[in-house]
Amino acid sequence: MNILEIKNLEVSVKTIDGNVKILRDVNLSIGENEVVGLVGESGCGKTMTARSIMKLLPENTKIDKGEIFLQGEDIVKKDEREMRKIRGGKISMIFQEPSSYLNPVFTVGSQIEEAVKGIRDKRERRERVYKILEEVGLDRSIYFRYPHQLSGGMQQRVMIGMALVNNPSLLIADEPTTALDITTAHMIIELLKKLMNSHRVSILFITHDISLSVYFSHRIAVMYGGKIVEISHSSEIFKNPLHPYTERLIACLPERYRKGEKIKAIEGEVPDFKSLPPGCPFNPRCPYKMKICEEREPEERKVGKSIVRCFKYGNTVEN
Amino acid sequence: MRRYVINRVLQVIPLIFGMTFISFLIIHLPPGDPFSKLQMDPQISRETIQQMRKLFGLDKPVVVQYFYWIKNVFTFNLGTSFSYHVPVSFLIKQKLKNTIALSVFSIFLTWFISIPLGIFAAIKNGKWEEKFLSFIAYIGISIPSFFIAMLIVFFVAKTAILPIGGTTSIFYKSATGFEKFIDYLKHLLIPGISLTLAGIGSLFRLMKNNFLECLNSPYVITAKAKGLSMSKVYYKHTLRNAINPMITIFGYELSGILSGAALVEIVTNWPGMGRLILEAVLSQDFYLVMASLLIGGILLVTGNLIADILIAFADPRVRLR
Amino acid sequence: MRIFLRRLKKTNKISFISFWIIVFLYLLAIFADFVSPYPYDLQHRDYPMAPPTKIHFFDKEGKFHLRPFVYKTELVNVAFNEYREDYSKIYPIKLFVKGKKRKILGIFETDRYLFGVEGEGKIFLFGTDIHGRDIFSRILYGARISLSIGIIGVSISFFLGLLIGGISGYFGGKVDAFLMRIVEIFMMFPSFYLMLALRAAFPINLSSIQVYLLIVVILSLIGWASLARIIRGMVLSIKEEEYVQAARALGIPTYRIVLKHVIPNTFSYTITALTLSVPGYILGESALSLLGLGIQEPYPSWGNMLSVCIGNLRVLTNAPWMLIPGFFIFLTIICFNFLGDGIRDIFDPKKW
């Protein structure tokens, strides 16, 4: 059974100019002990997807439609009290900048200990924290340190420890390495790989870096304009990108250049949710644009093992 | 931590030196010698003038006089009051305790009221409760403290529920220690409440904005993502961070509190530093003015020092650099 | 200016209203000679501490008069300060009523005032003070002091602050350290204590003009320190901005960088800071005058009109209308505060 299944998720934000949909018809599933990469440019709705799963959406933002099944139970229907048990319990989350996501006035140990669920005894709780600190590669003495005394990599290790202290089934990692330098980032990824196996946790790995995602994930979902436009196996995606947007993303990667070649970028800009073009949201930037792309939004269709939303692969609905 | 505190205390010393210099300068810079007038004043005895001339070098140039004065200040001899004919330090000691009592009373009351209200308004941000409180706070900020005091005196005079003016009632001499304390508190209420009302508005606004800012900070999302209860999110993670800048602000606010206290003292007839310095100005009692200014400054510096040390206790980023 | 007002109206209604209230108050102050029914120092000997005159539309028989009118009042009980209306004759309130010749702003001569009553009747909108002077008229004349001192004081402080803060921020290093220590020392005195001490350095009895100038000087001497600090901070941060660095790298002379890049960029912030510091000056003047150290009788200021209320419970309880000048101080300050906030909202790019 899948750990997580998102079906037809729609999220909108209330602004002065009325309701704006920021997630539309999002479908995604994550299997047991699987890493799924969620890739896209900033502002495409990756973080909102993550926050919807936690049900920690910003003010004025709400889930309009859809279901999110966590091990078979729909959490959209759950109330705040039940969600509190799930957050940090079955699902937990780590973030981009550990330095600002850790509370500066408490010791890191106490912040991890606070997250421990189901253990009443004080000494046992403390032991649990020591154990997890060791698992993420930190000394127990770190318990009494404050966040500002640790390096970025150590802070992220603390965050990971905090997230895994209750053995969750799903870890959402929202750009966990973006704020770190490249060697530290690499170490964090290796740590996540190791812990994924020892804790048997599935990971939703959010990043804008498609090559990092390919390295770490089993499957990759590409997001654009609040929609998932392609889901493919990571072994497939470089060889055979289906959606024009994925194709462009990969073409822009620096390691793909030959000497003397001009740097490519995807032409045009990331669209604003307030002014999405009619039809396929990618059509203004798409080199394969057809007439139908401006008229209708493409449905999801299966191509081989992958799922893609593009009229290139036929414009009839088939399931 | 210890080094931080020592460092901070050491910084105060040049500051106080500078303040003595400015205090002295303000009185002596304008043209005309204030002391020639003294000698013509028949109320001041020859001996006093002789004695002061020797102690303060009144016949020497102004710069030399400063050093005379400074030497005396550090031996706690602040000079003699011309109008009261007693040592200035005696007068100040008498009034200072009332001013400190008034300030401390109103600081506690102000914090006690405005911190919870600020938190409440931040949690209710955008709702009518917050809008209502913010509007009231706006009015509070804009009413001059002396005018609040006048309105309260007017109200109390109409209803006669509290004693107005002074620190003690007539029966004070025969009262027991506890009764004396209560009597003092009763007299403190009018100036105390006036000063509090004048201060709540700005403190409330600061607290509300701080709390809102902290509420939107990433670590609050972490706390929620851990599945903590809202009360823990608010009163542990947010509050601890929102209160820190308030401690720093306390240092700045203190200037306003001392100024406000002085005015309120005068309006409500509370015998503190405010009345003392006013009377000193009116009777051109220079040593008293200089000393009052210096003492006011030292009060403020001390308050700031305390705030800076408190912040070190509250914020590990300051404590453990 | 038009664009400014339109934006203000859109972003912040209360600020927009405040702006017009401030304009209205300034107009009242400027045309005090025309608007006030009596001169500020005219003592109505028979009317000490008279309450605000009641304005009637219905007479004793219940007959309605389109033109509002007043009755003549008479002091009947000195101890309790009781006045009684004499119903025998009505005195209608007239616009552009004729009276003694006065000069508006010392230029135009007029013998007509905005409103008033003729003959024996008197109109005291806000009552009279202990000398029987019309409080409404005195408030209008007092507005001249309170409202002008705010603007002039802020301008001088701003000039001093700009000079010292600018030098400090621009040169940095030792100059900066030295000047900022001085600023710190000035800021470490409670402002009220500093104000009184500065006042003590000058003789108590001065002419009105001298006192006025003295107050401006004192308030500016207190206010410059915080403005200097703000401006220094701005100069420092702008100096590090990339466009200034770029301009310098291009070899553009310093004064041009300052004129073309630095000043326009601090403009919005400066305007906000200045508007929000006006109340401090108004408060300072009222406080000094309240304590008898500022504007001297018989010339009115909102502060010295209140001084009779200090420690005088009989006056306070029998004639609470003496407190009205305090409401005007409050009104002016709250309007300036609202206006300052509104201006900040306009210039804040986040609010667009």
Largest sheet of chain A: 8 strands, mixed
Report, as a whole number of angstroms, the end-to-end distance of chain A: 21 Å
Order of helices and strands of chain A: EEEHEEHEHHHHEHEHEEHHEE
Q: Strand pairing plus helix content of chain A: what structural class?
A: alpha/beta
Shape of chain C: elongated
Strand order of the largest sheet of chain C: 1-2-3-4
- Count of individual domains of chain C: 2
Gyration radius over CA of chain C: 25 Å
Overall mean pLDDT score of chain C? 82
Overall CATH architecture of the largest domain in chain C: Orthogonal Bundle
Task: Kindly report the spatial arrangement of strands forming the biggest sheet of chain A.
Answer: 6-7-8-3-9-10-12-11
**CATH topology category name of the largest domain in chain C:** MetI-like fold
Tell me the name of the CATH homologous superfamily of the largest domain in chain A. Answer: P-loop containing nucleotide triphosphate hydrolases
What's the number of extended β-strand segments of chain A? Answer: 12
Largest sheet of chain C: 4 strands, antiparallel
Folded structure, characterized:
The complex is a heterotrimer of chains A (319), B (321) and C (352). With 319 residues, chain A is an alpha/beta fold. Chain A has 10 helices and 12 strands. An 8-stranded mixed β-sheet of chain A has the order 6-7-8-3-9-10-12-11, with helices on both faces. Chain A has a 4-stranded antiparallel β-sheet with strand order 2-1-4-5, with helices on one face. The radius of gyration of chain A is 21 Å and the shape is globular. Chain B has 321 residues and is mainly α. Chain B is built from 13 helices and no strands. Chain B has helices at residues 2-28, 34-40, 46-56, 62-74, 88-123, 128-142, 145-159, 177-215, 218-225, 230-268, 273-282, 286-314, 316-319. The longest helix of chain B is centred in the middle third of the chain and has 39 residues, at 177-215. Chain B starts with a helix and ends with a helix. Chain C is built from 12 helices and 4 strands, in the order H-H-H-E-E-E-E-H-H-H-H-H-H-H-H-H. In chain C, strands 1-2-3-4 form a 4-stranded antiparallel β-sheet. In chain C, a hairpin with a 3-residue loop joins strand 3 (82-104) and strand 4. Chain C is elongated. Classes of the chains: A alpha/beta (319), B mainly alpha (321), C alpha+beta (352). At the B-C interface, helix 1, helix 6, helix 7, helix 10 and helix 11 of B face helix 5, helix 6, helix 9, helix 11 and helix 12 of C.
